[in-house]
Amino acid sequence: MAPVTHHTSDREHTFDNLAPTGHYKEDPLWDRWVFAMRVGLPVVSVILGAITLSWPFINDREVSFTLSREDVARSDSGIRMTNLRYTGTDAVDRLFVVEASSGTQDDPASPRVRLQDIQAHMDIEDNNQARVAARTGIYRHRDGTLSLVGGVTIETDNGYSLKMAGAEIDLKGHTATGQGQVEGVSPLGTLNAGSMEIRVDEREGIFDGGVHIQITPKRQQNTTPGQEGS
Question: Global pTM?
Answer without folding.
Answer: 0.60
